[in-house]
TrEMBL record:
PROSITE patterns for this protein: PAC, STAS
Coiled-coil intervals, chain numbering: 134-168
Any one Pfam family match given in the protein's UniProt record, by short name: SpoIIE
GO terms assigned for molecular function: phosphatase activity
Alphabetically ordered keywords of this record: Coiled coil, Hydrolase
SUPFAM superfamilies reported for this sequence: ATPase domain of HSP90 chaperone/DNA topoisomerase II/histidine kinase, PP2C-like, PYP-like sensor domain (PAS domain), SpoIIaa-like
Protein name: Regulator of sigma subunit, anti-anti-sigma factor RsbU
Residues in PAC domain copies: 88-146
Domain STAS residues, every copy: 570-633
CDD domains: HATPase_RsbW-like, STAS_anti-anti-sigma_factors
Amino acid sequence: MTSDGGDHDPAADRRIGRCEDVRRVFDAMPVLVLGMAGPELEVTATTAAYRVLAGRSEMIGVPFREVFPETMGQQIFEMFAGVHRTGNPVQVRAMRAQFEQQGRRIEVFVDVIAVPQRGADGEITGVIAQVTDVTEQERERLATQERANVAEARYAQARGVIDTLQRELLPAGVPVLPRVELAASYLLADADTAAGGDWYDAIALPGGHVALVVGDVVGHGVAASATMGRLRIVLEEHLAGTGDVLAAVRAADAATDRIPGARATTVCVAVLDPATGLLTYTTAGHPPPLIVPAGLDDGGRYLETTAGGPLGTGGERVAATARLATGDLVLLYTDGILERPGQDLGTSTVDLARVAADVTADRALPGSPGLTVERVCEQTIELMIRATGHTDDITLLAAQLTPAPAAFALTVPADTGFLATIRTELDDWLDTARVGRADSTAIRHAVVELATNVMDHAYLDAPDLYPVTVTADLTDTGRVELRVADQGRWREPRPSPDRGLGLHLTSDIVDVLQISHDARGTTAFARHRLTRPARLLTAESWGPASSARPAPQADPLIILDQPSAPRPRIRVDGPIDGATAGTVEHEILAAGATGARSLTVDLTGVTHLASAGVAVLHRLAALHRGNETELVLFAPVGSNADMITTLVDLAHRTLDPDDATR
């Protein structure tokens, strides 16, 4: 007999140890073990270490839920009960659990292994749980993760500053010209994506010529970017003033004495005459231009380098010439696209000529949207580095000779019903002239505003319909010139919150607005500088990102009630102009009970918000304020409605006021 009156088993004593010894050893084990029996999981055994963690000294024979009532809802009992029910072991890493200990709630993290306990007949009799306290390790892991998150946030902030610096020092884009298409792209070096010293420039010159510049300052970082910015200004000023590539490079040579870090910069400067195809260029220690002829399948050809080394190193400057035909493309680039890891310079040079030719002919990734020059500047980089990566900045600047678009001319009756015709015809011309989305939106708004002004005021005393004529032309200086003319009588504009906003809105949209009038009628002249944005690329940039406008589609006015919204709300899609503003006003009045109840108007889908629409929204907003209700105008950032309501200082929200997730 044992000391507690149980049966004594000498064989078990020899195999396992005497009960007193096993109990003593079990209790002293530096692990947390809990034994439970039956479906209620009555506690049958614990180690001292487990009792210390749990903060309880006596729990034998008590169901788990009574021992740890505070764990209800934490799915701990359910986990153990599932092992007892199914016989499937469970292992959980870093489980967070809360216990009551000496009158206070503590939180721990534990690894848990729970296995079924079986009797002699194989039936499940209970559950054995081994628990490892990993609180300190988990807290350290979480602290490390938090430190990493903070470091990542700081890095992202620094990266944002560097990106901003790079974008400010580089031109915002390239000019849009009638006889040459331009595009540029810039990929920063992989090494911490630090700011770099590469740059590009494209400058519209008098006589329709265009200057092309690609350069590479030695080194990386903010200092290299600052040097690049100063050199770029020197070259831009001399090219804009003289159009002479040699004079510009010689001025940059002289500037290396006063610009720190400028010495040994390489640069390729070219001037292209689209009318004759003559390309005059010089390479100051820089790789020469690559010509991709139109319609040829045998790749591009490199021009000869010219005499003279990098800036500030001495040597005579010499210019060379080449001639391009319509459809030919010239590519300026930095050596980052040639000096790829694991590739010798000769192989990379051949690869660039072949890849650029394939992309130009749309053989590489066929069917991509956008202009050929945009495709070359983006896909060439993507294809060249996809297998090798890159360790230096890469800059590409492409120019392709194209036929000039014909000037735009349209005459329609001075009736608001023809505003849609003006928009459609003008959009077609802007697309033919290869004008980007942002500039097209501005030009369309300006023209429709000026045409609406004619329709509202020019022929008030005339019983018949008289014409309004719209013309547009893309100039060699990279600007579009617009004229909207009538044969009516001039009336002085009277700005007010309700009417007369058209001319003021137009003057905010375009660079120049001039009104002239005489006995024969009135002509509104507007000029707007056009820019095609360059792409500052990252590793995540690949994919279609064309500046081209979507294909023109029908643009009907659609006003829909949104009954699923948490409060009264309607959505307006399509144009709100002189022809549709009355309909919009009527529908908003109906939905808002003539101002008696608050209303949200979703302007996300508005394709054109003219001054007539602005006047309606001002008037309705005032009506709601007078009734102590609210007219909430929702126009997301970047939308047409956001652009116009911001210009005219009309209160609106850029985040959805009915978005329950915010």
